[in-house]
Give the backbone structure.
Amino acid sequence: RAKESPGSIETCPYYDTFHSAGEATTLPSGVYDLEELKKWGKARGWCPYYLTRQAINHANILVFNYQYMLDPKVAKMVSKELEAESIIVFDEAHNIDSVCIEALSVTINERGLEQATRSLGRLSSEVSRIKASDNQRLQAEYRNLVNGLVDQGLLEAPANDSGLASNVLSPDVLNEAVPGNIRRAEHFIAFMRKIVEHLKARVRSVAGPN
């Protein structure tokens, strides 16, 4: 959208210039720290972050902290681009276990769990809306089918109001006709609600009485 209508969306000029330069965004051989990369990028109007990520693929030696290798959230943006035959050296390796525990741990509190409950409520409402819409569409198709058979003389027209009720699908049939993705969504929501309630109970038991 920014290309189609310049000025309609605020963009980063450093990234735009870096992206426009293409293959020209290379660094001469040397040793670079964060400050050097910032100076190099600023002088050329290039984004230092993306410049660094590109330079990683051409570097012979990289020095960074444990998180860039062990924390999945960070490693997937940086370390995954390293060659498979790279040699990794850990300094102060006795700290690796604590770094892994920290990287793979999640802090849970009552506020976050309440937000999760509200999010599941909104998701459940949306699934119910889609389900109701599908039911209405299926009912309409069924009525059109019955009316078409009546018009062609293949089915007798209902003689009274009770006969009209036969043109409506039963709830059992509608529930069976729910698409698989909706059923899976309902099962997922029910499962997640059980997990959230279990975690709430655990948090309360650890926190103790107020």
Q: What stands out?
A: The CA atoms of residues 56 and 62 lie 8 Å apart. The chain has a mean pLDDT of 75. The longest helix spans residues 110-151.
